[in-house]
Amino acid sequence: MAEMESQDVAEPMAPGEASKSGARPADREGLLKHSREFLDFFWDIAKPQQETRLEATEKLLEYLRARPQGAEMKYALKRLITGLGVGRETARPCYSLALAQATMRPALFANLFGVLALFQSGRLVKDSEALMKSVKLLQTLAQHHNHLQEQPQKALVDILSEVPEATLQEILPKVLRADLNSVLGSPEHLELFLLARQKVPRKLEELVGPVSLFSDENVPRLVSVLKMAAASVKKERKLPAVALDLLRLALQEGKFPRFWKDVVEQGLLKKQSWPASYLCFRLLGAALPLLSAEQLPLVMRGDLIRHFGEHMVTAKLPNQFKFAPEMNEYVGAFLEGCRADPERQLAVVVAFTSVTNQGLPVLPTFWRAVRFLSPPALKGYVAWLRTMFLQPDLDSLVDFSTSNQKKAQDASLHVPERAVSRLRKWLILRLVSIVDTLHVEKEEDVIEEVARFCFFHSFFEAKKPTSQIPETEQRFSFPLESRTREVVGSAFFSLLQTLSTQCRQAPEQTQDSQPWTYRLVRFADSLLNHSRNVAALTPFTAQQRQAWDRMLQSVRELEATSSGAGAKAAAFQHLLLLVGIYLFKSPTESCDLLGDIQTCIKKSLGEKTRRTRSKATNPQEPPWVEVLVEILLALLAQPSHLMRQVARSVFSHICSHLTPRALQLILDVLNPEKNADEDSVVVTDGSEEQLEGAEDRSSDGEDDRASAGEEDSGEDSDDSEEEDRDADVDQGFREQLMAVLRAGKALGTVDGEDDDDDGDELGDEAMMALDQNLASLFAEQKLRIQARKDEKDKLRKEKVLRRDFQIRVLDLIEVLVTKQPESPLVLELLEPLLDVIRRSMRTSSTKQEQDLLHKTARIFTHHLCRSRHYCHDVGRLVGTLYAQVERLVQQAGRQADAAVSLYYFNAALYLLRVLKGNAAGKPVCKAPKKEKAGSQPKGPEVAQAAGGLDLSLVTPIYSSALTSFLTRRNSPLTVTMFLSLFSRHPVLCKSLLPVVIQHVTGPARPRHQAQACLLLQKALPTRELRVCFDDPEWEQLVSQILAKVTENLRTLGEAQTKSEHQKELSSLGLLNTLFRTIHQEKLTVDLTAVLGVLQSKQQSLQQRECAAGSSRLYDLYWQAMKALGVQRPKSAKKEAKEVPSVTQNPVSTKRKKKGFLPETKKRKKPKSEGPAPEEGARPAAAGEQQPPSTGKKRRHRRKATVPAQAQAKQRPAPDPAAAAITGPGTPAKTPKLKKKRKLSQVNGAAPVSPVEPAGKKQPQKDLPEKGVSGKSPQSALPRKKARLSLASRSPSLLQSGAKRKKAQLRKARKP
């Protein structure tokens, strides 16, 4: 009674919840009245005594087990979850324990996974006792359907399917009830029943008795069970095992027709739901390998296959599930598995092809499953397709109409002629697509049969049957329409393209070493000769027949001479054959082309030697190559990929004979100004037929959803039309409208008077006349608007065709620059290609424009500018090329986009490369033999670097461009362009350096000064530039640049803008480059001024670095100071890091982890009374005492330098400004090199070191007189090693520490 009362109590609320949501006091009082003991459990769980907590936990669980569905369970879960967050640690374990025991789901899943683990290990099959316990546990778990659903029953079926029959007989009475209602109650019980019927039928019959699952009373229950199974696998998208087992049982008992008709088609498909429909589709695919040839028609001609076809037509939306890929997998697996049974293969393929929507098959024309057909089945399928094309049997098709098509009132949509036309177009495309999936060598007879069939019905018709031509033996049951013939013709040329692509050993070659086009031409010739039996749709005239016969004669001659002419004759033969086939499609144009082609072929093959462009046999007759180029352009204008390949192949053989006029014909296509007015080449569009076919397929194959949106789309189109009409209304139409209204007196007064003052209203006749005038006026306006729209569409289509034609013509240019890169004609391609790039970069909005741009840029960059071969015989074109260089450089500076400017600049560099390598340029003098290689750079080397360039012509061009770059605010030229110029032409760089040096300082903008510094920084280290200078010139140049940089550095640390900051960075970078150059070449340069400037900026830079964090500028500054012998203070180096507290160890924690000892553990050196020898050589920070170094490498280097400095007899420290001779300027990344390099004196003077106090003077002792000569006695490396270091540019990295120490010891021992 208490339990019933407690169950009737409403759900209590957690503490604090009543105030938030307005709890009901009556419910809470009832809970407190009847469940006081229940609430006390939670108080006892939180008590500090452990015994009390455990006892309360146990009693709470017992209480909840008695009431698993009551309100107390929900309330307990809330209280226990809240108790997990209490502050007392002693109470949380009991809350957790109680919660884990109260929630049974984890325990249920744990038990289920444990049983599955035992099953996978194989123990259950061997251990009967564990098997029985697992079965009992699964039966217990099956009761918790809310948590586990049908998983325990599925696991039970999987386990019992693996056990032996004897064990199954023993367990079956315990797991399967003898009640048939229980068996047909769920898919799991039915699956267990089917398993027992398969493995232990006698035991099952003893237990249940004789059962007929496919009886009239059991069929509805089977349907409901299958629907439950379909819903259970909705997310998995797979076939339930119980459905496949039922199918096998029906086949085994011979009741498959009843199962398919009553259960599948009349049951599952009766009330269509997509899960049940997908189950039927999967059952159809899975049933294909199990059915015989007699049973297949029952499946493939019923309601299910019709429903599948309707799904194929209607499933068009992107987010809608499509079953077609899954069905293709089923069919492909079936065809691949029964190659030995071609009859069943053919039946299935024909059945799927026969599913049509108003005559149009639902399958796509390209079906990959066909590749699994065996040769007999393939031949039978091709024969069926041909027969259906000639004599369509609409009754044999499984045809259907969608709901929208049934609602259509148009009677013309349901006539058989329309269905036949749709079917024939699809059949011919399927025939052509079959060739794509075949091996040309193995199925040559099938391919030839398809090709002959397509060619015959494209251009011929049968008059009288003959056995010599099998295509004439069958007649059409429905006449073939002209539109269908056009589709057949386009399919035939698509077939030719497929054959030319698949045959790789030779162009379209068959097994008897003849091209496919040649075999088809012979077939066409035989058809022309059988005029009694066959008639051409477009009969040849006498002139066209003569052209055909001459073409055949030329092909035979080329075939005879192909052994000598090689690939050239084969390409011409291919061209003749292809144009000969096109004679049937467009006789007039092809007839003229054939005559011109034959003339050109004879002249090209008759030329034994290559003629010059100026010689011609007849001045009035154009050269044959120009005629052939025009022919190729006409072929490229046709939308045929095969024509494109043939034109490319032929042009590759005639491009060596190309003339400037022939090249201009090609370039005129790329020029829109010249191309717009010429009508010599008419670009045709072959997509009309395809569009018509697509319109035919899509107009009547729309699904319900697509048609549902027709009204909305219609409204949108009406709105857009209204907007277009409003936009197209001009002032003339407004005036005409006003005139009509005034004439009809329908317009109010315009003098400002009220409308009420007007006279009488218009009469009926006047209104009718006014309506008629307005109607005629608006009709004329509508016609004008439509005419303007048609004109716009025409212009847009013409533009698309023109761009496509230009893309195809680029193939010829690509062939020319690839096959003949050394021809002078290639030089004429630069500016036309640049014009295409410039226009496309400006208007590359569509994908077609982008394709044109990418292809042109690829040809220009990769095949032209970066080609290894170029023209070496310019001849009289030298002056023209210099003018072209000037024009290209000027155009590069005028562009608005830097990307376009780069193309123009690269074109000028390409011409410089041609001029430099021109054999007709200036001769290169040879160096005298007496001069040594290691002496100063001489004139021959400079002349060799200049090549054939005339510097007097080139230097002003680039000097003007460089000046513009360093003065204009927005110049399209970049630093990278001039660096590329300097690296390729160092002699020109030498001439342009004064312009760059001039803009380092002065009135130039800071950004331009930074660019000038960057140019010098990248150009000076190059070895090619150094070769162009003598030693005095080079030293003078370095001194001049150093003076300019020193002037720039006087404002160091005062930058306020980004450009000024970049100028400071570039100036310091250039300064470090100069220091490296001075050191590597032992130049004598006075560094006193730059040292003074840098020292004066130390304090301001340090403050700025701390305030703004400009670490890059600060690092470059100290890199320069280090090159001058001034070491960076340790304190300055540590400012970027966190300084440890006074009580902490001076060594940072990061260094401790690397194994360094703390300062207290180190062995300290005894301090000497006098100054250490190395103190003079290593200056400290001004007025500060440097802390002891903790670095291991520094300590070792310092020990290594002590002997060398001790043997120097305590020579006074050289002045840091004396770095003028050696000039150490290696970057800060290699500090080891700096320790061993000594500084020399300049002019015998040693100014006061900036790092010493002002009151302390440096001792002036004997200075070596050799310091003025430019070579230091304390040079770090010998002369030979200096050369090696110049080549490698990192001398310190090539020497180990031991070698450097030995070198220092040897130098210290020298007097």
From TrEMBL:
Residues 694-708 have a biased composition (Basic and acidic residues). It comes from Felis catus (Cat). Belongs to the MYBBP1A family. Residues 677-693, 709-728 have a biased composition (Acidic residues). This is MYB binding protein 1a. Residues 1169-1188, 1203-1230, 1284-1294 have a biased composition (Low complexity). It holds the Pfam family DNA_pol_phi. Residues 1-27, 677-728, 1128-1311 are annotated as: Disordered. Keywords: Nucleus. The keyword Thylakoid does not apply. Residues 1149-1166, 1191-1200, 1298-1311 have a biased composition (Basic residues). The keyword Nucleotide-binding does not apply. It is found in: Nucleus.
